[in-house]
Fold:
Amino acid sequence: MRRATGLRKPRANRVSRRKRASEAARAGGKSLSTTRKTRSAERRDAILAAALDEFSTRGFEAARLDDVARRAGVAKGTIYLYFRDKESLFQELIRTMLTPLVGTIEAMGQTDLPLAVLGDRIVELFVSQIYETRRKDVVRLMISEGRRFPKLAEFYYREVLSRIVAAVRALLRRAAARGEIAESLAEFPQIIAAPGLLAVIWNGLFERFEPLDVRRMMKAHLDTLLTPRRAP
Amino acid sequence: MRRATGLRKPRANRVSRRKRASEAARAGGKSLSTTRKTRSAERRDAILAAALDEFSTRGFEAARLDDVARRAGVAKGTIYLYFRDKESLFQELIRTMLTPLVGTIEAMGQTDLPLAVLGDRIVELFVSQIYETRRKDVVRLMISEGRRFPKLAEFYYREVLSRIVAAVRALLRRAAARGEIAESLAEFPQIIAAPGLLAVIWNGLFERFEPLDVRRMMKAHLDTLLTPRRAP
DNA sequence: AATTTATGACTGACCAGTCAGTCATAAAGG
DNA sequence: CCTTTATGACTGACTGGTCAGTCATAAATT
Structure:
């Protein structure tokens, strides 16, 4: 039951408070750094990692910051030293995880190889950098909760998606010019990503009933999109 | 501020309670039926419709049953006459909206037309029955919240998805046998649906930045998948 | 009058965010 | 170098507010 008195209870018997925290930090794998700055960065990362776990399994609303704190080996108040509020923590999480991806993908947009070759690279990039990574969970979060965070959706569109779409479009245009694919495809770069997206969702919902081999599916898809250069 | 007393306040001055409710029912467009059964079914539907609105805009956790009740022109307690609890309401909503779709799609799986023709029908079916309908919101809900309702995901897989997948797979096998598409495609019926799924998500998150023409995208996709029968 | 249907005030549990207090570490002084 | 003082990172009990679900009572229907 909730205490009814409005009186502040005087502090008492704090039994070994720091102990748990430092143990958890140690358990986190990192040697406990003594530098203030290093320690601070480690804590931030620990909180972000814990937040990803909790947000992924319960969703934004249902996730409890108490649980995030416990998982990060930190007191709840500490979270508020690093993030303004729950929403801010959520947005930072997505920003931090997805931003680094853009460069990699844009770089790939530059290369001027036959699509038959690039295809393998695209598939591999997606699988190794997203599907087999915690970034998969971030993508899921973006899909699931993005509508309720219009600012975040806008950020994500401007900083990530629009750039990727532009890169892929350029790539497809060149391939179409070479006659490797139909012109109409270059208009919808989203088509290239669609099976990957589907796989992320399928994996979260139905994998236990019917597994899906992303790599093979994406490969089959790309192969089929290629215009067969005259039947043999 | 929250009331602190634990005392039950005696009931008093209920001023014209039914009025608002019956007005709202009338405003709902339906003539107020006198049949018990009809009226009951109407209420149920009103609650489901209101629930779809609220769950769609706020998400399952954040949606308030008070708001669902208000929107349905009903008192909160009434919801509990029709549904066991919030979760049950959510699951019933998805069941009710998606189940009728299966028959339509399975029927299409039977027809034995060239894929070039069937393609148009598939696109049109998807757009008119899902994308331009409130079912689009239900699909979004399934994607966003499905992970937290394993039972629901299982129901959806068994009753809806697996059947659709089977129908499309059969359809693709026949098309592959006729040489209309690559064999490898028939292994992944999901590929056919992928752009539609992507469109639903895109529509919810990024439509305001960059509109996406589903019909044209899906058409372009299907056209590209068809093996060009020998270059002209 | 009896039964069914509906209502909405109320409760109990829950949780984001706060803040007075603590303590490890750093800086200053001897 | 050692001791003292200062700093601010960190803690967790607490507050204020929210909301799912209940139930005593009222309205409608038979």
